[in-house]
Amino acid sequence: MKASTILFIFGGSGDLTNRKLIPALYNLFLDNYLPEKFIVVGVGRTSFASDEEYRNKLWEGVNEFSRRKDELSLQWQNFANYVSYHELDLLADDTYQKINDWINSKAEEWKVQPTVIFYMAVAPQLVPPIAKKLSEHKLCTDCAKTRMVFEKPFGNDWQSAHELNQVLSSMFDEEQIFRIDHYLGKETVQNILAFRFANALFEPIWSNNYIDHVQITVAETVGVEDRGGYYEQAGALRDMVQNHILQLLCMIAMEPPVSFDANEIRNKKVDVLRALRKIDPEEVHAYAVRGQYSGGWMKGKAVNGYRQEKNVSPQSPVETFAAVKFFVDNWRWENVPFYVRTGKYMHEKTTLITIHFKKAPHYSFPSEAADTWRPNQLTFSIQPQMDIRIRFQAKKPGPEMILTPVDMVFNYAEAYAGQEPEAYETLLEDVIEGNPTLFMRADQVEAAWKVITPILEAWQKRMPVDIPNYAPDSWGPEDAEALIAKDGRFWTTVPPITKE
Ligand code: BG6
To answer: Which domains does the chain possess?
Structure first.
C-alpha cells in the first residue's frame, strides 16, 4: 500500500499547476496510482471565492491539457474532493504555522504520519526564502517523510546553482530534494536505458570503433510566447542545452550501470558530464553557434521577431537558437562529435537523437550501386513521433544490384496502442514513492553548468552582430549548417513518418 500523502503546491494558482501538475495527478488517479489517502493543497496569492471555484479552474485545465480526451468527467468529482486551495503569503511565518497545523490534523484523522511533499511551482527568486521558512518551521525534519520538488531554472550559471545547492544542503538532506528535468520523465527518453542496457546487441558497437558521430535536435515550432521576461534571462543555451539536451546526451554516452539504483545511474551520468570537454573561451566560435529569430511567417501565420516579443528588449542579444559541438573525452567516445541544436520557431516540432555509424570498411558492390549507399543510422524519435529505427542497406528489387537505405522500425503507437503517460505523471509518481532516479542530483546540475559556462561567458563578452539571423519556419541560422558541414557532415532533420 502506498504511504498516505499530502502534496502542497506552492504556486497552486499558476500555469504549471493548471497545465501539467493537475492533469498529471488526475491521470494518476484514473490509473489507480495515487495512494488511498491523498490530498492536494494549492497555496498561492490569487484569491478564489471557494474551493469549488478553484476546482472549476483546474477542470478547465484538465480538459485543455490532459493527454486523455475521453471519459474525463466520469471521475473528476471524486478526484476534485481531494483538492483544496488556500490564499496565503508564502513569505509569512503564520502560513507555515497553518501548514503545520493541517499536517498534524491530517495525521490525527488518518492515524498515520503522512508523507508531505512541497512542490515549488513558484518564481525562482521565491525558492530560497520559502525553503528557509520550511526549515525554520521544522517542516522537513523527517527526511524519510518530507520532500521538496524544484522546477528549473536551477540557478542561472554555475555560481548561482552552487550557492543554491549550498543553501539547500545546509537545511535539508539531498535525498529530500527532487530537482525536475521533465525530459527524464518522457517514456521515449527512459527507453534509451532499456534499449542500451537490456539488449546485448548494441553495446559492442556503442563506441568510437563503430560510431562516427551523434546528433541531438530539439526543435520547437513555438516562439517564446508570453515568457519573454523569463527568456531574456535565459536564452536557448540555459533553457534547453544545460538541462534537457545534456541529459539526453548523458543517456546516450553513459557507461552501463551496475544496478538500477538511483545513485548508481546518476553517478554514471555525472561521469559523462565530467568528461565533456570544456571548450576554450577563445575557441567557442568554432564549437557553438547562436541564433535569434526575426519576424516572418510561421506555417502561414505572421509572427513577431524575438525583439518584438512582449517583455523583450528591442536590442536583445539573447539567443533563441543554439547549436554546439561537444566531445566526451573518455576511452569510449574519443573523437566522436556530439552535435546538438535547439531552437524556437523551427520548421518542424521534433526531438530526435541520431547515432551515425561509420561506413562499412570495404565497398565490394558494383560502382553504379554506390550512389545511394549510406552508412547505418539509428534514430530515437523522442517526440512527437515516438519510435526507434535502424537504417540499413537493402538490395532494391530488380535485375541490377542497386542499394537503397531502408528502415526497421519499432513504433510505440503500434506496439502499445498509445496512451503513454506524460512525463509529469511519471515524475510525480516517483516523488510520491520517493524514487529520485529521474531527478537531478546537486552535482549533476553543477557539472552541467560547468560545461556550458565557457560558452555563456564567451557569448556575453562578444555581443552578436548579425542577429536576428534566422527566419521563422527554418532550421536556424546558416552558421549552424556550417558548424557541421565543415566536418563533412549534415544535420538529420525529421524521420519519415511511420505508416500506420
Ligand atoms: C522547457 C523550456 O523546459 O521545455 C521551454 O523552458 C520549452 O522553453 C519546453 O518550450 C519544451 O518542453 P517539451 O516537453 O514541450 O519538449
So the answer is: 5-151 (3.40.50.720), 184-418+441-485 (3.30.360.10)
